[in-house]
Automatic annotation (TrEMBL):
Pfam families: HypD
Protein name per Swiss-Prot or TrEMBL: Hydrogenase formation protein HypD
Gene Ontology molecular function terms on file: 4 iron, 4 sulfur cluster binding; carbon monoxide binding; iron ion binding
Assigned keywords, A-Z: Iron, Metal-binding
Species in which this protein is naturally found: Thermodesulfovibrio autotrophicus
Length: 352
């Protein structure tokens, strides 16, 4: 670690200007806080947190739509624990559960499928969130549901893809990004190729990295070297887990069941082809098609700045509600719910 810190100091002195690097993954955000990495690097290196928490980037409209589905007769909604706590316009899935609506927390989509198997007289909907890391498991669950002919199992997919969001961020003028600390886990699936446009089109530095303090510090040193030498490229620091070609079998498997679709990101808006929806052949399992959801009037919590936080434009403490009205025990916005959310990470590790 000492060696990387010294290299960062040397390189940053030579660069002599502010360098803006964005870590895209929520696990990196937490690791940067946990290891006090900001305090180990010179002040002209600014680390910005990106939209890398799947719970946080799910927009309020989707929470409201899930609440609508959950309140229909003979329906069981299943999802991960954090999703249950994200506030919608009128309460969360957790609150709906407390009021008697059948919402169940699961640890895996396969658990949700089990619920469907055990409740054949009910429509069981899995609220599927995540990035490329979790989508192979969702695809596997659809495969099992098809194989076992579990007809009462449905997916509401808000699955997101990381590379299209990066293109939006790199074009966000306020950020003036010099480079990206790219996510290790996502890259084990997609490899390095989907990021190539960041270098060829935008000439930004990129390093795919692991999650320990020395991984992140080494990645920062690698990024600074690329910037100093004006030779942007995609380097893989996390070589034990990430291959340039990723995991083609996993990608092929996802593509058997899902296709790319436009997707709405909290704070960013609709990004073309940045989400995964079930393919036409499996539309009988697509909750958005099966349930007739009317247009709903969603309203963001008053004063919440999640949108600006997710784009890296504002830091959580700049939100007037941070730590006062909005806390992990009583989250006002999605970024305070998941431990990988920027607001929750700031609250835990960097509160005044
Ligand atoms: Fe939203 Fe709370 Fe974060 Fe403010 S502190 S941006 S209200 S989640």
């Amino acid at each position: 670690m000492k060696e990387f810190v010294e290299t960062i100091e040397k390189l940053s002195k030579k660069i002599q200007r502010q360098i803006n690097l964005m870590e895209v993954c929520g696990t990196h955000t937490v690791s940067i806080f946990r290891h006090g990495i900001r305090s180990l690097i010179p002040s002209n290196i600014k680390l910005l947190s990106g939209p890398g928490c799947p719970v946080c980037v799910t927009p309020i409209q989707d929470i409201d739509r899930m609440l609508y589905i959950a309140k229909q007769p003979n329906v069981i909604v299943t999802t991960f624990g954090d999703m249950m706590r994200v506030p919608g316009s009128d309460g969360s899935l957790y609150r709906a559960k407390a009021e008697g609506v059948d919402v169940r927390m699961v640890y895996s989509p396969l658990d949700a499928l089990k619920v469907a198997e055990q409740n054949r007289d009910k429509k069981v909907v899995f609220f599927a969130v995540g990035f490329e890391t979790t989508s192979p498991l969702i695809a596997a669950t659809v495969a099992v549901a098809e194989d076992k002919k579990i007809e009462n199992f449905y997916i509401y997919s808000v699955h997101k893809l990381v590379p299209p969001a990066l293109e939006v961020l790199v074009n966000t003028e306020e950020l003036k990004l010099d480079g990206f600390i790219l996510p290790g886990h996502v890259s084990t699936i997609i490899g390095s190729k989907p990021y190539e446009f960041i270098v060829s089109k935008y000439k930004k530095a990129c390093v795919i990295t692991g999650f320990d303090a020395d991984d992140i510090l080494q990645a920062i040193a690698m990024l600074l070297k690329q910037i100093l030498e004006d030779e942007p490229r995609i380097q893989i620091q996390y070589k034990d887990a990430v291959k340039p070609e990723g995991n083609p079998k996993a990608v092929e498997f996802i593509n058997m069941y899902f296709e790319q679709a436009d997707s709405n990101w909290r704070g960013i808006g609709v990004i073309p082809k940045s989400g995964l929806k079930l393919k036409k052949e499996y539309s009988h399992r697509d909750a958005e098609k099966v349930f007739d959801i009317p247009p709903l009037q969603s309203k963001e919590p008053k004063g919440c700045q999640c949108g600006l936080v997710l784009r890296g434009v504002k830091l959580p403490p700049e939100c007037p509600l941070f730590g006062k009205i909005c806390t992990p025990q009583n989250p006002v916005g999605a970024c305070m719910v998941s431990s990988e959310g920027s607001c929750a990470a700031y609250y835990k590790y960097a509160r005044g």
